[in-house]
Amino acid sequence: MNRVAIVTGAGKRVGRFLAEGLLADGWQVVAHVREPGDDVPAGAIRIAADLAGGKAAAEAILAACPAAPALLINNAARFAADSLDDFSPDELGAHMAVNVAAPALLTAAFAAAGGEGDRLVVNILDAKLAAPNPDFLSYTLSKAALAALTDLSARSLAGRGIRVNAIAPALMLLSEGQSAANFEATHRFNPLRRGVEPSDVLRALKFLVDSPTLTGETLTLDGGQRFWRLPRDVQFLEPNR
């Protein structure tokens, strides 16, 4: 029987790329999307759920699995701009519900589902955690909490043979509100002068899958950008024209 993987946010952007890569490698992929009409890669099992829905959403995603899953990728995320000057507890709560509480509930449900052999959870973080800046405050706080969840759940689940790791990529794809010119100017803004691509995340994922003794670790994919300790998010360092 093919191995079963869950990918949240699998309808677009890097989540879709990862789902397609897993399908190509022979995995059965349960592709989570938010809305029932959202598209998923051909061959994937679609499950629609609002991750802000708490435990019911996690249970619905696990119930869509044809067998006990061997891989969970917590990729879906809320990403909205805010700062300390316009900080809102409601916005922070919305980020925490999707970016932290949902991965925690899914990880717990994944662990409870059982299964044999190596089992792996991969949380998608953000490279900015290695060199923080104050932009996207609530988003950054939620990703920092997800990084803590990665460490704590790795410690909690190691005795059950379940590994938990993370991948933290830098800017890969055009962000909402970002111009193509700004993206072109900032995508390779790092010491290596190499832009991070979704294919880099897929390679990192495959490395984690193939490393059965690796747990509690984060792979940062940023071309060394963290060495520069930028004062602002990289897209704000160039005109957005």
Automatic annotation (TrEMBL):
Record keywords, A-Z: Oxidoreductase
Cited InterPro entries: NAD(P)-bd_dom_sf (IPR036291), SDR_fam (IPR002347)
Protein biosynthesis listed as a keyword: no
One matching Pfam family: adh_short_C2
Transmembrane annotation, as ranges: none
Family: Belongs to the short-chain dehydrogenases/reductases (SDR) family.
Name recorded for this polypeptide: SDR family oxidoreductase
Species assigned in the record: Sphingomonas glaciei
Biological classification of the source: Bacteria, Pseudomonadati, Pseudomonadota, Alphaproteobacteria, Sphingomonadales
